[in-house]
Amino acid sequence: MVRPLLAGGGGAISLWALLARALRVQGRVAEARPIQEMLVDALPGHFPTRFDLSETLLLLGEFERGWREYTYRYSLAHTSRIERKVQRPRWDGRPIPGQTLLIYDEQGYGDTFQFMRMVAWAKVRSQAHVVLEINHEMASIARRMGGFDAITLRGELPPPFDLHCEMMSLPMAMGLRLSDLPGDPMPYLSALPDRRAAWRKRLEPYSGLKVACLWAGRPTHMNDANRSMSLVQLAPLAQEGVTFFSIQKGPTESDALMPPPGMNLISLSPEIRDFEDTAAILSEVDLLISIDSSPVHLAGALGRPAWVLLPLLPDWRWLQGRDDTPWYPSVRLFRQTEWGRWDQVIDRVAAALVERKRGR
Amino acid sequence: MTAPQQQNLTIEQALGQANAHWNAGQADQAERLCQQVLALWPGQSDALHLMGLMAHAYGNVDLAIDHLRRACQAPRAPAIYLSNLAEMCRQGGHLAEAEQAGRRAIAMDATLVAGWNNLGIILQEAGKLEESLTCLQRVVALQPDYAEAHNNLGNTLKRLGRLDQARVEYEQALKLAPNYAEALSNLANLLNDLGQLDEALSLARRAIDANPRLSDAYINAAAVEVSRDRYEDALRWVDSLLTYAPLHVGALGVRATILRRLGRLDVAVMDARRAVAAAPDNGEALNILGEVLQAQDKTDEALAAFDRAAQLPGLVREKALINRGVVLMEQGDRDGAKAAFDHVLAQFPRSVSAWFNLADLHHFTPGDPAIAGMEALLGSDGLQVRADRIALHFAIGKAWLDAGDTERAFTHLDEGNRQKRATFTYDSAAIDRWISEIVAAFPSEMFARPRAATAGSDLAVFVVGMPRSGTTLVEQILASHPAIFGAGEQAIMQNLVNQAGGFPAIARHLTSENEVVLGNHYLDAIRPLAGNHRRLVDKMPSNFLFAGLINRILPEARIIHVQRDPVDTCLSCYTKLFMREQLFSYDQGELACFYRNYERLMEHWRSVLPADRFIEVRYEDIVADIEPQARRLTDFCGLDWSPACIDFHQTSRTIRTASLNQVRTPLYSSSIGRWRRYARHLGPLLEGLGIDPEFAAVSEELGGAKPKRSGKPAVKGAEKSVGAH
Questions:
Q1: CATH class of B272-421
Q2: CA triplet A333, A335, A340: central angle to 5 degrees?
Q3: What is the pLDDT of residue B623?
Q4: Is the pLDDT of residue B540 over 60?
Q5: Are A45 and B243 an interchain contact pair (Cβ–Cβ within 8 Å)?
């Protein structure tokens, strides 16, 4: 509708912004990109536009400028108040031997699982004494990862430090390229042996292919309506010789108590106390099938097989037009090809599951 | 996620932890500890100071000042707290309190680098530049690798007019911190002053790249575009800034100024008023409001704004005092204006604007000390801003013409024109094509069509011609008639044309309905100005471009074309530094080329416009015998004769054009044939106009017969006797 008004190359900036947004929603990201670049050129101080551009560039795999524009994630109306105003300079990627570098996680659990691999790399690059600050829920897994000198929990007073870096600013500081992925070591996380033993025992009675699953993300996530499904939509996956284990958490976890007819589904949700349990389950099942949510990243970081169901316009980290991901060798992607059509995705996953069963 | 409740901490421990939390960006924990301390010990200085720093980091300057004021009330408050209070007061616009706190800080601790730095910036902003310089030089001496200090020192040097030294400091700052946005932006501003426009713009872009919210960088980028007469591009920079800071006082002021120059006064005044409302004590904003009000002929309000601006601390005082003088000059108060400029020069001896305006009012004689005074400003210790130097060359050129030293006069005039011409691009050939397009777009058949039904269009009288051809004089004669209002140079037609798709493209859309719409647009704009007058004169000279359009949309409007000897006209243009853009006027060859195009277009209008709506009057005829010409003009306007028209120089009204000081004097015939004395310096102009300088020299001896022109036979405007319509 707005195209004719802009055909001459002139036109109001707000109309161009509308066109870029419309193209993005349709997944036509490559078409949106030059418009978004023009908008940033015209309005360099308008940070929401820059953040939108960062998502487009990262989605297209244009890491260099993408990570730079991604620094505007804390300059949006709803984020500027939560930006952490650290009174020390941000690390810019240069060696700082003898100094202390504070790296802290910032956003969702999935982000932290994905980017915590860079802590060890940052230590090598900076030659600094690295302090990792992390959320309470992931602390015990993080401790085993290594690659840092000290750990501190979010909200507690960290030891004195000279420079800092947000975990998701590490790619910008270190100039992360696609070809650097997945990086060493891979996998970089591990499950606790005794938890694994306990869950192995818990899952032992069930026969056939063991598939963990979840269908909904945290409802407060910005893009949740787009990424989440309902359990009923998973029903076509049910087949002979497959047992599903729900690891769903949150408002929809009790849906697993009444599975769709014909679906062999056991709910593990009430028994999962923390991420150590999730990690152990993912290490003991054959496969995870999930929407885009933090357990996917945990599975990837553990090197465990996971199939991810993605909406037409996915989060930037899944890139475009490929069914693998450079971030995690063990993860396979199933993308929507039409807006909102989960049914088509599920049909493809069901077929793949038949294949998988055969190859087992 | 909250920190465990801190029990049994001493106040000292609690403060230590609060500081450590804040260092780590843990504002909630730091605040909680501060509040615990303040509950036990209200007014505890360190806790209040930390609360102030945190408020500042979250952008709440007023709250920060509040905390710091209280922190500084403690008997043992250290110097750094006062120094921080000083800086926040500066940011909050409380300059006097800032200066006081800053001075207390360095009195307490003379080794406090931050204290000297903060005081140095405050004094700079207050216009106390020499003292600021001392402070900042001390900072740089104490801490030579302090990039910010070099940048600040550069700013003070720049304001002192020592551009070379300022540049060294900015470059030093950038050596220490290559992506230092403020220094990039300041260097851009300096290079703009020096006329290095490409480099200036690229630095401003780099500054914005480094910090996309550095508002000064946008304003400096806009200033570069203004230096190039690219007003629309300048507006884009300012609008880009206003998208994220809609009430930015500086941006609103700059936009008001650009819009004023574009003649869009209604919008300009809204921006200026918003700027003043947002910062009532901002002298720059008040001065800009005054300039817009002045353009709107609201003289008293304008003077009030200038007077208030001149009383505020800071750097705007000089500008406001000059503007005051310009208002007096426009009202014909030559003595008052002269006194105003002398007053400025007494305080600011290097004020180019004061010299420039004074030069227009003053008749120089050989040996005049004022000439030496101006020439000194061009010397090695003199002015460095390119725009200032250009203005000075024109002023000195005028002075030497007065004093009769043609050689020296043209040395300065040529240099001034050359430097001005280097600031913009101009394409003579494009003008050539454009005029041909206009002629083609308004063929004679167009004027055979029925007239548009625009009602009341006989209110409008247009006085058109080349700049410096006598349009101001003709307007002044007419405006002296009780039934005629002189509205000065109105940009209404130009704006109308811009909005309606450009010129001459607009000609394609001239249906009878559109003609009425456009005509009413114009009339709606002028009616409020006209009051009870039967005629209103719009003397924008460049409306000669639109004469055909005017006749189509305003069929009863009268158009008066003022003619003057071509060489005298062009000479007058060439010796003048225009405030509005007259880009054709700074190179003799281009000037001649423009003149010939103007003649070509007027010849076309002459052949197509109806005789009862188009008249031509010669400047020389008015000067020779004013009354018959004045009667001709009033007749043409359909009005009875009024003797006031020949005593025009007594008429009290505001005049705002380059000719304003001449119409205040009785007619002077010295301006006729003036050019022959300077023929030797006008080679490219005479050649371009097709006038044989040999013949000119001879004719001078023969007593000023009209020179013969050679060249294209089509060009004959100057010799053609003007038919009496």
A1: mainly alpha
A2: 145
A3: 86
A4: yes
A5: yes
Chain B: which residues have CB within 8 Å of chain A? 1-3, 17, 20-27, 29, 57-58, 208-209, 212-213, 218, 236, 240-241, 243-245
Dist. CA B265–CA B259, nearest whole Å = 7
Query: Which whole number is the average pLDDT over B386-393?
Result: 92
For B348-401, the DSSP string reads: -TT-HHHHHHHHHHPPP-TT-HHHHHHHHTTSTTS---HHHHHHHHHHHHHHHH
The reply to whether residue A85 touches residue B57, judged by beta carbons under 8 angstroms, is yes
Return the number of other C-beta atoms located less than 10 Å from residue B25's C-beta: 18
- Superfamily name and number for B11-233: Tetratricopeptide repeat domain (1.25.40.10)
Going by C-alpha positions, the residue among B227, B226, B205, B229 that lies closest to residue B217 is B205
Instruction: Give the pLDDT of residue A83.
Output: 87
CA distance to A104, A221, A342, B182, per residue, from A312 (Å): 32, 17, 10, 43
CB A99 within 8 A of CB A125: no
Distances in whole angstroms, Cα of residue A281 to Cα of each of A212, A275, A303:
8, 10, 13
pLDDT confidence of residue B325 = 94
* Structure tokens belonging to residue B8: 């049994």
Phi/psi-derived region of residue B470, left when phi > 0, alpha when psi is between -120 and 50, beta in every other case: left
- Which of B620, B647, B622, B644 minimizes the C-alpha distance to B632? B622
Option in A45, A84, A88 nearest B240 (CB): A45
CATH number of the structural domain A3-77: 1.25.40.10
Among the listed residues B689, B488, B490, B715, the one whose alpha carbon sits nearest the alpha carbon of residue B574: B689
pLDDT band at A126 (very low <50, low <70, confident <90, very high): very high
Helix pair angle (B95-108, B79-91), 10° resolution: 160
Provide the β-strand partners of residue B463.
B560
pLDDT digits (tens, 9 = 90+) for A213-227: 999 988 887 778 888
Residue B699 has a pLDDT of 43
Task: Please tell me the predicted confidence (pLDDT) of residue A289.
Answer: 98
A42/B240 Cβ within 8 A: yes
- Per-residue pLDDT at B662 exceeds 70: no
* Residue ranges per structural domain of chain A: 3-77, 84-176, 193-359
Q: Which two tokens stand for residue B478?
A: 């007419």
Q: For position B384, what pLDDT does the model report?
A: 82
Confirm whether A3-77 and A193-359 share one CATH topology.
no
Is the per-residue pLDDT at B6 higher than 70?
no
Reply yes or no on whether the pLDDT at B666 is more than 80.
no
Q: Supply the ipTM of this predicted assembly.
A: 0.89
Find, in chain B, the residue whose alpha carbon is nearest to that of A13: B240
State the pLDDT confidence band at B582, using cuts at 50, 70 and 90: confident
Q: Taking residues A14-30, report their average pLDDT.
A: 87
Does the A193-359 domain belong in CATH 2.40.30.90? no
pLDDT at residue A250 above 50?
Answer: yes
Q: Write out pLDDT tens, residues B689-707.
A: 988 766 654 444 444 434 4
- Residue A3: is its pLDDT beyond 70? no
B8: burial class by Cβ within 10 Å (0-12, 13-18, 19+)?
Answer: exposed
CATH for A84-176 is 3.40.50
Residue with tokens 């897994």: A141
In degrees, to the nearest 5, what angle opens at C-alpha A61 toward C-alphas A56 and A63? 90
User: Is B244 in Cβ contact with A47 (below 8 Å)?
Assistant: yes
Distance (Å, whole) CA B212 – CA B222: 15
- What is the CATH number assigned to the segment(s) B428-673? 3.40.50.300
